[in-house]
Amino acid sequence: METRMFFVRHGDSHHKRDGVVGGPEGCRGLTDEGRAQAALLGRRLAADIGPRGPAGPAGAAGPAGAAGAAGAEGIGGKGGAGGRDGAEGRGGKGGAVGVGKVAIYTSPLPRAVETAAAIAAAVGRPAVPDCGLCTWHTPPEADGLKQEEFLERFGIEGGGLYRPFQRGNETWAEMVTRTSRTITELAHRHRGESVVLVGHAETVEISFNALGLMPVHRPFDLTVSPASVTEWSTGENPAQWPPPRWTLRRFNVIPEGD
């Protein structure tokens, strides 16, 4: 009984182009390019996982190379490490490779919600907001500020893993814990299913902590592209102790155009 976790970074966003802190108010959602990216990604994911049966229970959990295509019309693409399944994918020759129930969760920030909506429309499942998938919980008064002003006004000395880089912000260790808890809870809740988690670059990065059991401070950096897919899977119990072995099947895969 395989559990598949698809981590999606939101599409191209206004906040990134404008260079502002993109909290609940500062985020103006996706650009036209971002919406096109999300729509393409939704079609590719739908061809890959396909809806099979109702989605699992909804609710908040609390707080980049060639792709291994999954089926003839699977995600495919460029930009990341490919899955090991080869051109025919895990489902054999051609067609979609639905593996049972599908659930979709999203960060509640507008750029992620818009991306998740496009995926939900293509897959035929609702997208459930979960703040555990959010990026940095920056202070409300910094929301919408230019990044330069944010760093100038809120930056503090001595920031690091366990001390924030900015006044009122959470630490990297706190975000790793928050997001990892959400990831593992959703993996447990949807054991044997396919789960799409739409979030941010940090969400994808933290999957290496939560599932790959990397230390809080990784010895390498990651580049996560807009509207890219990273997939992990396991055939073991996601909630077992010792933790299960997860397989990184693809990283930072950007779907190719129609």
Shape: globular
* Count of helical stretches: 6
Structure classification: alpha/beta
- How much β-strand is present in the residues? 5-15%
> What is the CA-atom radius of gyration, in angstroms?
18 Å
- What is the string of helix and strand elements? EHHEHEHHEHEE
Arrangement of strands in the largest sheet: 3-2-4-1-5-6
Number of strands: 6
Question: Secondary structure elements and their pairing?
Answer:
Layout lengths: L2 E7 L4 H5 L13 H18 L52 E5 L3 H14 L3 E3 L17 H8 L17 H18 L4 E6 L1 H10 L18 E6 L12 E7 L5
Parallel strand pairs: 1-4, 2-3, 2-4
Antiparallel strand pairs: 1-5, 5-6
Helix pairs in contact: 2-3, 5-6
Folded structure, characterized:
- With 258 residues, this protein is of the alpha/beta class.
- It is built from six helices and six strands; from the N terminus they run βααβαβααβαββ.
- Strands 3-2-4-1-5-6 form a six-stranded mixed sheet, sandwiched between helices.
- Strand 2, helix 3 and strand 3 form a beta-alpha-beta unit.
Describe what is shown at a glance:
With 258 residues, this protein is an alpha/beta fold. It has helices spanning 14-18, 32-49, 110-123, 147-154, 172-189, 201-210, and strands spanning 3-9, 102-106, 127-129, 194-199, 229-234, 247-253.
Keywords summarizing the entry:
6 helices; six-stranded mixed β-sheet; alpha/beta; 28% helix; 258 residues; globular
